[in-house]
Amino acid sequence: MSETAFKAMVVKELADKTFERSIETKSIDQLPVGEVLVKVMYSSLNYKDALSASGNRGVTRSYPHTPGIDCSGVVEATASEDFQVGDKVIVTSYDLGMNTSGGFGQYVRVPGEWVVPLPEGLTLRESMVYGTAGFTAAMSVFALTQKIPVERGEILVTGATGGVGTLAVALLARLGYQVAGVSGKPDALNFLQQFGVKKVITREVATEGNERPVLKPQWAGVVDTVGGDILAAAIKSTDAQGVVTCCGNVASPDLPINVFPFILRGVSLAGIDSQNCPMAHRRMIWKKMATEWKPEGLEKLCREVTLDGLGAEIDLILQGGQTGRVIVNMAE
Description:
By secondary structure, this protein is of the alpha/beta class. The chain is built from nine helices and 15 strands.
């Protein structure tokens, strides 16, 4: 088993400090120590993966490296009493694909406490349509549902055509919320309407008047995926006792905001950390995603590529051109 060969994307640093990625053959004995060996059937592409695949030291400290913060597959060997050979499982978050060889390889070996049993109601493929993006979206939606009933008002989703944003739209619409989206893409409305969005506003409209301390209240809640000025404006335009979730910084890690929305309207800002989510909460969220929260037409949210076609998708997501989700068929 230790000499079993498999394909993986490998990112290397060159002598001139640039980085290149290629599909190479590795063996299982090159994988890190861990209790559970998983044969990867599917992975998915996230923005963090693209950063790792480009040599971003804030994500991955040392190279050569195999990215991929998500994978689903079948247990091939285990030293953990929680799993048996043949179990279908999901591995996302923790250190997978960051500094631990990740899901862009046909095998991963990880600690048992990183592994989630595939919940009934989901296929391995569907679990990667979700992936970390869907799990993050679901954590955001869960935070909203604790304080914002469906009849309370409209929910805004920023970065609505991205992976987290699109899945947040679909989950919120599945639960009966009225959803608006923020996007800079010209075809965003046509794309998002099939998942339940009622209207789409541009980034310029979303941040209009942002120099003021507070804005006219419009939203019962917000799922923000981008940070920066858009998040600040969303907070300022959230209604009394509303909830704003924050999970991304692609626009900016800075938050130019004052205290007035919090002390005059009682707005709550909820940070979403999917990487280190406790396992009990993680399993509960995955169960909801597999059952009562599962959107109809989940497959419409994704495009499928093979490992050989992944490089072009990495370039696309770095250019801001990706919509929806990209899953990687690792068996091909």
